[in-house]
User: What shape does this take?
Amino acid sequence: MATKPSNGIKTVGLAPNLQSGFYGQDIISVRQFTRENLAHLFKVADEMRAVTKRVGSTDLLKGFVLAVLFYEPSTRTSSSFVAAMSRLGGSVIPINEVKFSSVTKGESLPDTIRTLESYADLIVLRHPEVGASQVAAEYARKPIINAGDGVGEHPTQALLDLYTIESELGTIDGLHVAMVGDLRYGRTVHSLARLLCLYDVRMTFVSPEILRLPLDVMNEVKDAGRPVRETYDVHDVISDLDVLYVTRVQRERFADQSQYESVADYYVVDPELMSKAKERMVVMHPLPRTNEISYAIDSDPRAAYFRQMENGLYIRMALLAAVLGKA
Ligand code: NCD
Assistant: This one.
């Protein structure tokens, strides 16, 4: 089964498809992606959507095993990886509750990774510490996919976010994207802002002072030559936006809960705000939402967050197939 490529590996049977550039690779950060491999992945995701809608599943990854190891809560990311692998005919070892695994007995991350790679071809990891996926990747002989490393990155979410923007608006170049909310702790924002640097976009970051985008991410965006703006009030830009990317305030990341309370309801996307937005624009959210998007928006055709969530399935099917050399 799949191992990281090394010189001298002889291929028996069907040669792995190397077109995506992802075969045998760890997926740790969006910095690894190029416009070319994203275009390829999005094309495969379109095919995955068509296959899923038409026949439900295929046997492209029959015989492969995926381990899904989550040290933090998740609904969408973990279940979409499980569904993606299942719909491609592969099998899954799901470890969502590390408290029922040997982690509670004090097993280290490297040892847990070594264990799972003895049984699986690929490991999807979510962990509360920044850099945990990188550490895991250094120990692992099999590919690691970062499904969120604390307040660091969430590269597969950024893939589905970008895929959603392109599916909804037909392009990425030329757009004005605002990211609103917890830009400090929101790892999906850190990944998406970096990924958007590959395109000709304008970005506006909207947050209260204490939740501003970290300086390192801001500097990357500026170094990429993208026009950026920061503001406290989404009303400053709403009428000019193509994408309004809303995030939840990450309660679990605050050491001081009173500080959380002070910003928890800082902004709400409601019909009044949407009345000022363009007719052709999209509202996105990685979900879960708390109070930051009113339920009254759900029936607005510009509300793309449920379609975005579904896209996570197709993009993860495409990524699994690419890393295992089948797309
Ligand atoms: C996000 C995450 O886990 O970072 N959720 C997700 O993966 N869809 C966003 C969040 O938890 O707010």
